[in-house]
Amino acid sequence: MAKLWQKNYTLDSMMEHFTVRNDYINDEELVLSDLVGSAAQAKGLEKIGILSHDEAMSLLKGLEEIAQLRKKDAFPITISDEDCHTAIEGYLTKQYGDAGKKIHTGRSRNDQVQTALRIYMREASLKLSADVLSAAEALIELGEANQDVPMPGRTHMQIAMPSSVALWALSLAEELLEETGMLLDLYRVLDQSPLGSAASYGVTLPLDREYTASLMGFSKVQNNVLYANNSRGKFEAFFLDHAEYIALTLSKLAQDLMIFTLPEFGYFSLPRELCTGSSIMPQKKNPDGLELARSRTALIGSCSMRVKSIIKALPSGYNRDFQDTKEPLIEGYRTTEELVRIMTEMITKLEVHPEALINACVPELYATDRVMEKVLSGGNFRDSYRSVGLNLAEVEGEDPVASIGKRTSVGTTGNLGIGKDRTWLSSLSGRVAAESERLSSVYSALVPGITETIL
Questions:
Q1: What is the set of active-site residues?
Q2: 110-358 CATH choice from 1.20.200.10, 3.30.420.40, 3.30.70.100, 1.10.357.10
Q3: What is the pTM of this model?
């Protein structure tokens, strides 16, 4: 099909490559999202009399056909298409004639792309949330299984105070639960329809934007049509920022595991199937996955920064710069998804070595406990602190397992609140499951060829 903007000349091939670049490749990810938006567009045009009922039904049938072709990887998008949006309209026009030529009535490629991206991000938020909750659950299970296994707590990487494997694991679990809640809060921002905003200023047709928004399962219309345009890139950056927070937590986990699985520590062991080898040193079993978790976190952060750098000085209204926010969005999401899944596998298969952990609980770990004992016996904190600090050689160790049970304040080793964490996990999982099920019904009602989700 000719380009959506086609004039009476042929675009220079170098300019075609420059303006399209990888967009047509990235759009492989957006086909099903666009089908949902296009189905709503067709029904919306039928509602205001631009399409007859038969024309609308033909287009909906064509969109379902594309969904089936997409499942078979038989719906190619080429550089001459520019993107999936042209490819979809081209298919509809080829198969259904004038009806296909009408589907773009009242919309710009701008709000068409915006709508597809909004559907994509909405779905990505739910899928990423589900994956992160699986990681959090694995950490909760690790903590629950090791509640009585002591572990040296560290500050500045030095021996500090008694801790436990459970406290360490659950700290990371709660961090991921918090970040999932933040991502689901962002979902409410993403869940608004830009369709009908056209090229930032709407059109003179009586488009029923509330109707098309409801068809796509959006909770509301993004009201101001210029704001709908200006939010492009910013919403992608919101999503990528939240993805980066998740990655930062997993990077900390990766760093901890690299340290604690060193032979010099021996607290944990990674399964060999999750480690690689050296091309020259036959004895090596390298935690390359953990090292790459750190670098992938930087990659995800760079995706967010790329988007913000692109949009930071744009004037109001549509600008072609927005096109270059699509690739970092997709790359950042897919990288985060892969990172979460591999780290969940690491957690699930992690082997804990209680003996090494107990042996690591040296006497100096209990120096602060000795200070607290003096305080409880009537001494003031500052003098007690100084007395213990000047006589560290006299600090005696104690039973590490008994020691972690003495800490009974909320959230400490003797009062971990695992039940609260499980309730939190269940609540978030319920929100994700309910919304995923709702969207699945929305998609299949609009385009029956989309039977589950779009990603």
A1: 156, 278
A2: 1.20.200.10
A3: 0.93
